[in-house]
Amino acid sequence: MDKIKPFEVISSKFQISRESAKYFLGRVQKSFKTEKPTHQLILDFMSGQKFDELPMPYQIAKAMNEKGIWAYPLNSEPPELVDDEDLY
Predict the structure, then answer these.
(1) 57-84: average pLDDT
(2) Is 49 strand, coil or helix?
(3) Residues with Cβ < 8 Å from 58, sequence gap 6 or more?
(4) Most buried in the list 5, 50, 71, 72, measured by CB within 10 Å?
(5) Closest CA to 27 of 56, 70, 51, 52
(6) Is 27 exposed, middle or buried (0-12, 13-18, 19+ CB in 10 A)?
(7) What whole-number distance in Å separates Cα of residue 27 and Cα of residue 50?
């Protein structure tokens, strides 16, 4: 029997593609400067939280850091992307 992978759980729970779930987990890992948490640790942390929708990867990394789950230095928060107004 195959073990369910963390990205498959996130994909199913938040109704996103498997590729998007893999990308999400990778972005959470890249939020840390040096040591990167495993996908399973990220999933375990998220399972204990109440999320109605998929949060931003940096929010997960920051929460993991603040709660002492993964106490390694974080990279700076990425700028928030803002769509320009439609010109037409």
Answers:
(1) 88
(2) coil
(3) 27, 28, 31, 74, 77, 78
(4) 5
(5) 56
(6) middle
(7) 20
In the chain, the amino acid numbered 49 is: Q
Q: Which residue has the tokens 């439609």?
A: 86
**Contact, 74 vs 65, CB < 8 A?**
yes
Q: What is the pLDDT of residue 27?
A: 96
Q: Is the pLDDT of residue 1 over 60?
A: no
Using 50, 70 and 90 to split pLDDT, how confident is the model at 73? very high
Q: Which two tokens stand for residue 21?
A: 């779930």
pLDDT tens digits for 38-47?
999 999 999 9
Structure tokens at 6: 């963390």
